[in-house]
Amino acid sequence: MRWLLLVMFWAVPGWVVPVWAQQNMHVPLEQSGRTLQLAAQLFKPATTTGSVPAVAIFHGCGGPGQNTARMAGLLASWGYAALVVDSFSARGLKDVCGRNWPTQADAEARAGDIDAALAWLGAQSFVDPRRLAVMGYSYGGGVAMLRALSGKPDDTTPSPARAVILVYPDCALADALGPKLTVRQPTLFAMGALDDWTPPAQCRAVIDRVVNGRDFVETRIYEGAHHSFDALGLPVRYLEGVGNRSKPGGCCGAHYGAHEPAWKQFVADVKAFLAKNLAP
To answer: Which of 26, 48, 88, 229 shows the smallest number of beta carbons within 10 Å?
Structure first.
């Protein structure tokens, strides 16, 4: 496995985020009688003392991007190991944002990526396996939600993730879980108030179905923000051809683009949430 030592910074208005080192690697996943090697990038803190907490990051329908790498760099600067998992390349996919929006079966198959990534992280000598978290964006957030929630109200199965962060998640994926839900770990929903691709109303409806573990749920709704409010430097635009599960028939069109005030508050919220829930 190859280390990339980077002398670089992401410079965006009001932010300079250093990234000290990335490691390209693969996470093995046993699925449907074959082994997929999921490409991933590991970001480690510049210095470590003992074992560190770790966060597995799962991208949206466009694949890994600057937003997931930027967040991984921030996490590393806060003292976390961050693993950005590419769920697409091993499956021959690049972008599934179009009219052929991922199906429920696609999402449930991808949920296994979360289990594989957490198992890999928990086996690393520099990671504390008792302090693992999952962070999912959009479609990846919906997939992470399938692991954070259970459709069995009496489900007490422990989760390998001690905390979950769902960033403008595709909450429509929870429809298949049934009318009564259980949350088994602290879970943060972070959403844009103006999101018409994965609207907050869908997530509120999901949260209303939680009958056990409701106290684990936290929500943050950022005023003035659309989908992908963390896509810094990208003006808000309307995409006519994208699949949209919140519309009749799953098609089509949505707004997305950056909202820097939302991004700044989101970063502060994530930092506080992880500090509270992944403390030693």
So the answer is: 48
Q: What span, in angstroms and rounded, lies between the C-alpha atoms of 138 and 120?
A: 23
CATH number of 2-277: 3.40.50.1820
- Could you write out the DSSP letters of every residue in 47-63? S-SS-EEEEEEE--TT-
The residues, any chain, with a CB within 8 Å of residue 136's CB and separated by 6 or more, are: 57, 58, 114, 142, 143, 144, 145, 164, 165, 166, 167, 169
Contacts of 132 (CB under 8 A, 6+ apart): 53, 54, 55, 56, 118, 121, 122, 160, 161, 162
Yes or no: say if 197 and 254 are a contact pair by the CB < 8 Å rule: yes
Q: Contact at 8 Å (CB) between 122 and 160?
A: yes
CA distances from 256 to 79, 136, 224, 227, 240 (A): 31, 17, 12, 5, 11
Q: What tens digit of pLDDT does each residue of 31-70 get?
A: 888 999 999 999 999 876 789 999 999 999 999 999 999 9
Could you list the beta-strand ranges (E) of 78-186.
81-85, 127-137, 149-150, 163-167, 181-183
User: Looking at the whole model, is its pTM more than 0.90?
Assistant: yes
Both tokens of 140, joined, read 């990846």
H helix or E strand, kind and range, residue 18: strand 15-18
